[in-house]
Specification:
- With 285 residues, this protein is α/β, with parallel strands linked by helices.
- Helices cover 40% and strands 13% of the residues.
- It is built from 10 helices and 8 strands.
- Strands 1-2-3-4-5-6-7-8 form an 8-stranded parallel barrel, surrounded by 7 helices.
- The chain is globular, with a radius of gyration of 18 Å.
- It binds 6-sulfanyluridine-5'-phosphate.
- The site of 6-sulfanyluridine-5'-phosphate has 16 residues, from strand 8 and helix 9.
- It is an enzyme of class 4 (lyase).
- Belongs to the OMP decarboxylase family.
- Keywords: Decarboxylase, Lyase, Pyrimidine biosynthesis.
- This is Orotidine 5'-phosphate decarboxylase.
């Protein structure tokens, strides 16, 4: 199993949480406050760095470093939802370079395999190179041993094998092909963004994280401008946390249902509890 997947399951059980909070908000201070408020209740924090204004690229003290400090404080993995989709060489530059330097602070990134499997090879070279470089610099074990509890300096990839949006082009054949490509890069691909479990062969140990998740409006605390329901006006389709966990998804991804709330920490706790109860129910079955 990928070291980050092992760590993720350790977190899921110790925090009793299957929740990934998605920061679909547009300023750096609000993103950092959201991470701090939801930190105790989530195992993964998903970012879209390119929707944020005010990103500070300064090494060591900038936005990436601040986010990494929160991940260590609360123990969660950072997932930059970059959806790489270019040729391998360009994807490498996008992963490592620019103002965001995603490679330095995001444990997990994701990609569409539309451009073919070599793009995964390109990202893997960077991810594994980063782990080695970091080890050399800090002289610590790549799996974080000796720093028990804090996220390890590993890098992993999720492939989009299904999407939650209406009319998307990821049909069954594409999904199957994506899974078979993932099997050839098990040392870097942790799993999938998908709507259901993808494991079908005995040696498969892929994790599935699922977006398009909301509590029904009548269960919500009704304190946000956007109250998610069965769908949003732009084709997003929602399923309840309980349904997703009972169908075998490992982590639910919740964006506006939490981040548009004035009491995002309390909302995250509410989602965490509903999902965890369903997870325990599933484990008992
Ligand atoms: O198929 C997908 C894949 C992703 S990563 N559907 C999605 O909605 N996402 C992301 O999950 C999307 O980019 C957004 O950041 C989040 C869902 O947000 P929500 O506000 O609808 O919960």
């Amino acid at each position: 199993m990928h070291p980050l997947t092992i760590y993720l399951f350790h977190l899921i059980h110790s925090k009793k949480s299957n929740l990934c909070v998605s920061a679909d908000i547009t300023t750096v201070p609000s993103m950092l406050s959201l991470a701090d408020a939801c930190g105790p209740h989530m195992v993964v924090f998903k970012t879209h760095a390119d929707i944020l204004s005010g990103w500070d690229p300064t090494p060591v003290t900038g936005t990436g470093a601040k986010l990494a400090a929160l991940a260590r404080k609360h123990r969660f993995l950072i997932f930059e939802d970059r959806k790489f989709a270019d040729i391998g060489s360009t994807a490498q530059l996008q992963y490592e370079g620019g103002d965001y330097r995603i490679l330095e602070w995001a444990h997990i990134v994701n990609a569409h395999v539309i451009s073919g499997p070599d793009m995964i090879r390109g990202l893997k070279e960077m991810g594994q190179g980063w782990v080695k470089k970091h080890d050399d610099l800090k002289g610590m074990n790549a799996r974080g041993e000796g720093k028990v509890g804090e996220p390890p300096e590993e890098r992993g990839l999720l492939l989009l094998s299904q999407m939650s949006s209406a009319g998307n082009l990821l049909d069954e054949a594409y999904t199957k092909k994506t899974v078979s490509i993932a099997r050839t890069h098990r040392d870097f691909v942790m799993g999938f963004i998908a709507l259901e479990p993808m494991n079908s062969e005995p040696e498969d140990d892929f994790v599935v994280m699922t977006p398009g998740c909301s509590l029904p409006p009548d269960q919500s605390l009704d304190d946000s401008e956007f109250v998610p329901g069965a769908e949003d006006p732009l084709g997003q389709q929602y399923v309840t946390p309980r349904d997703l966990i009972l169908r075998g998804c490992d982590v639910i991804i919740v964006g506006r249902g939490i981040c548009n709330s004035k009491i995002s920490g309390a909302k995250a706790e509410q989602y965490k509890k509903v999902a965890w109860e369903a997870y325990e129910e599933r484990l008992r079955q």
